[in-house]
């Protein structure tokens, strides 16, 4: 990310928090108290920090998925559906397959990855073969994925009796860190003597975040240093020129959507294997895909910048949920804040006007000083 | 002879579900013909759904609610216009922002005005949007069994909320405005070639502002057509994806009002069919039926719609002083 872009992003974040504060103020809440609660809600204890990381992981991954597609000229609104398919496949493999620890988890993640890649690839295929705009197809596929997932969860051998969810995955497929050790006698003994570790390991801290970081680096490398990445970006930059340059544009569209799908699928898989351990029956989408779009935009579509952007969004969402119980302020203020941040990011021109105005004023003051 | 009444039932449900989409889709037609991509329809619809339900509840008058929804949608659209037209923002990015701000604000305000509840207090039937033809057909006294069947069928087709009729009238109105009036020609010329339009003395920015704000007004009405007609209150997941489906219908309809109408009707009919099948004794999984509208839409798109290209300058920011 260029320096000017980082500056615009930072100013947008400040403006977003400012507008969120004003909304709280108008609604009769003390914004300073609210932000104090939120700050404390993220950094107040090791447990909160751990939760922030856990909650941010899927957002980072869906953010990378959307960012990657954007870089190749495609708008992946479908991360939502790809996430759902990824979690479903991972849960199926996690429950039905019997395999040794580690291998089981890897197979489950790859299954989620592959299923979601196919799901994303469908949108790419429909665009390449039939010329249907990927915005339409991915929206339709999101809802199809949601109901398909529900349909599979209702399947008798898979559904947990008396629960609106699937069976839990087997322990061998879990990617939660020290899950068994935490509740073992030896583990309890160690943790009781180490307050920090005990607190930090309280949430389902898992390998998902590490996987997300690795994928961010991998995607950055592919885009920056490989022929495939170069070709994909060329298609995104100018489709006709790319075609003229001998790139099979249609094939690249399918590949691009499949990769984007695979990344969103990993988001779903790690969430299942590390946190929820099951697929729930959903009435409506959970929003990971849509939040991922905001993450990608805050990150200027840079895969590595998606990590801090995802942490920011995840942190705000997690801390925002503490507003209601503490001061009764609606947590939706977070969505307003995120929206405003994205809104200002959309208008670099406005931010440039503001910053140049501020710097001119500064210079004016300096002139006055010399008098 | 139940086929007839079944068919009537399906058509009735189709029309009811099409209407909210139709308003929003027409909004998309206006905005995008002026060259401003409006992916924020979803957010504008949500704020309209909230404003409609809340104002209708507090005034106990659905029509004041309906107007309030239009204003709320228009105001949110004004933000989009400021970003896209004045500050040459990326239209998609601004639209995504609107989709966070709209629903966020709608639920925020719901909780403020309704004591922390995640939904507005439902309107009772007398204070929802009226159904002008309610009881019209059943009041016709017929002795013949077949005639009774026909009357019943007509009743299930035409006994719709007033918002449904308004939606279809608006299709004609928007078509007329876009293709038969000066302002319509200006909207389209600004979307096709803003620089040429500018040279002819058209105020490109003003036309774009107008089109975008009107699109928000229509999307707001679409939200209200959901919250104070199809159901009777606003709640968290009431608008979940309809704005995007309306957008899809607009693209399906090749950016024309009548085309958008067919897109909305297609989706509404698929929805009607899936609800009808769910009520039969065929025993198809309700989850599979819920997938049906989306899959049918995808298949129809594959079969009948090829590459669809919108207005030439759609999505491009326009700056007066740049070559």
Structural overview:
The complex is a heterodimer of chains A (371) and B (323). By secondary structure, chain A is an all-alpha fold. Chain A has a domain at 59-306. Chain A is 75% helix and 0% strand. Chain A is built from 18 helices and no strands. Chain A has helices spanning 3-26, 31-43, 46-71, 79-96, 103-130, 134-153, 179-183, 185-193, 195-200, 208-225, 227-237, 239-244, 249-276, 288-298, 306-320, 323-327, 333-345, 348-370. The longest helix of chain A has 28 residues, at 103-130. The radius of gyration of chain A is 22 Å and the shape is globular. The mean pLDDT of chain A is 91. Chain B has twelve helices and no strands. Chain B starts with a helix and ends in a 19-residue tail after the last helix. In chain B, α1 packs antiparallel against α9 and α3 runs antiparallel to α4. Chain B is mainly alpha-helical. Chain B is globular. Chain B has one domain (2-304): Orthogonal Bundle (ABC transporter involved in vitamin B12 uptake, BtuC). The mean pLDDT of chain B is 90. At the A-B interface, α6, α14 and α17 of A face α4, α10 and α12 of B.
Give the arrangement of secondary structure elements.
The complex is a heterodimer of chains A (371) and B (323).
Chain A: H1 3-26, H2 31-43, H3 46-71, H4 79-96, H5 103-130, H6 134-153, H7 179-183, H8 185-193, H9 195-200, H10 208-225, H11 227-237, H12 239-244, H13 249-276, H14 288-298, H15 306-320, H16 323-327, H17 333-345, H18 348-370
Chain B: H1 2-33, H2 41-59, H3 62-86, H4 91-113, H5 145-158, H6 162-180, H7 182-192, H8 194-199, H9 204-230, H10 242-252, H11 257-279, H12 286-304
